[in-house]
Write a structure and sequence with these properties.
Layout: E1 25-28, H1 33-44, E2 49-54, H2 55-60, H3 63-73, E3 77-84, H4 90-103, E4 107-112, H5 114-131, E5 137-142, E6 153-157, E7 163-167, E8 175-178, H6 188-205, H7 213-235, H8 240-253, H9 267-279, H10 283-301, H11 304-311, H12 313-316, H13 325-342, H14 359-367, H15 375-383
Length: 386
């Protein structure tokens, strides 16, 4: 995540470009993994897969057993690696790379949330750096709504506990399988909070640089569906159709794009990256903390054009305009805060034992420097999260 060095930027205008990433195919539907996984393996010419996942998913559910059974049925099972922790510590990356080699694998099937999917990208990146050859590919089977499967970058935590990133177009998963049945075992708090993470992607995409206008209408659809279906999923966690709609909303929240140059998502994400690994706060929860107050700040911080993109969100949420763009953005902030509250996800920095004396340091790191005009306002946001 690059530093945010300006208070006002233009996210899009009437001149630009769009290109898709290296993602080859997305399969979606309850139970579709049975046919989609072998089909993707065949299309990619893959012979042996290493399954990469987290310990909880491996030990406490039968999801990984289902994936292993499909791979064995098609003679494509190599091994399983489940030493991937939250925020993908680098020790797990190194061990996973060795496991990939030992298994004689030529592809990774990543199953779970953002950590195993990002860790798989990091494993494949390090393998390519070591061999100098072509990138091996990944098939992602997400069980949360964090949308890591649609990006070309991978965040992991180094030995000093600092989140670092690698990026390459070839790191985008070659295939994604959205099977809502596989999400039924996902803990409620993880499922719902990563839904807020998806909301964070969609909202910040409205003022992210280099995003073509058509994608912003996908973001509006994503926002509307997340507001509609997250409460329904909380009320009835076993409703597979609702969960499938949420997976599609997550896809729309971070629609794959190959921009001409890198563009950071926004301040909520920048703060989340600085809070997450350093203080052990899950990515979904960082969005629950930061998104609403950051949106309120944007009522005056973003450009005139971006202000309109944000304000128009109310139309898609069926919330009446408050009479001005600034008031509409503040109403959007309040709606996000209420959604977080209604989902039972309201939390504080104090609950995660973030020292109050670290507030200025976090703000400075998120913005890149303390003389940024937004610095005092960001410090105030963080102080209000205790």
């Amino acid at each position: 995540m690059s530093a945010l060095s300006t208070t006002v930027h233009e996210s899009s205008d009437l001149t630009g470009s769009y290109a898709y990433t290296e993602l080859k195919q997305v399969y979606y539907g309850p139970g579709i993994v049975e046919t989609a996984l072998p089909t993707l393996l065949q299309k990619l010419g893959a012979k042996k897969a290493l399954v990469v996942t987290g310990k909880s998913l491996h030990d406490k559910t039968d999801v990984i057993k289902q994936i292993e059974a499909i791979l064995r049925k098609h003679d494509a099972y190599g091994d399983v690696f489940y030493e991937i922790g939250e925020h993908a510590p680098v020790a797990g990356i190194k061990n996973g790379l060795q496991k990939f080699k030992d298994a004689g694998a030529d592809i990774i099937v990543a199953v779970g949330g953002g950590s195993p999917i990002d860790a798989s990208k990091a494993i494949l990146y390090n393998l390519q750096q070591e061999t100098g050859g072509e990138f091996h590919r990944q098939i992602a089977i997400p069980t949360t709504l964090s949308a890591a499967e649609y990006t070309v970058g991978a965040g992991f935590t180094n030995e000093q506990g600092v989140k670092v990133a690698v990026s390459d177009q070839k790191l985008a998963p070659a295939g994604v399988i959205l099977d809502a049945k596989l999400t039924l075992a996902t803990p409620e708090r993880l499922w719902l909070s990563t839904g807020i993470r998806a909301l964070d992607h969609a909202v910040e995409g409205l003022y992210r640089a280099l995003i073509p206008p058509p994608l912003k209408y996908l973001f509006y659809a994503s926002i509307a569906d997340l507001f509609k279906y997250l409460p329904q999923s909380k009320a009835n966690p076993q409703d597979v159709d609702v969960r499938q709609k949420l997976q599609i909303a997550s896809w729309m929240s971070l629609w794959p794009i190959k921009p001409e140059r890198y563009s950071a998502l926004g301040l909520s994400h920048a703060l989340g990256h600085k809070l997450g690994a350093a203080y052990g706060i899950p990515h979904g929860i960082t969005s629950c903390l930061t998104l609403a107050p950051v949106v309120a700040l944007q009522a005056t911080a973003v450009s005139v054009e971006d202000r309109k993109w944000l304000a128009d969100t109310l139309f898609y949420l069926r919330i009446p305009s408050q009479g001005s763009e600034e008031k509409d953005i503040l109403a959007l902030s309040e709606a996000i805060a209420k959604l977080v509250e209604d989902l039972g996800l309201r939390t504080t920095l104090a609950q995660y034992k973030v020292p109050q004396e670290d507030v200025t340091k976090i703000a400075e790191k998120a913005l890149g420097k303390s003389d940024n005009p937004l610095y005092p306002k960001v410090v105030r946001i963080l102080e209000n999260l205790y």
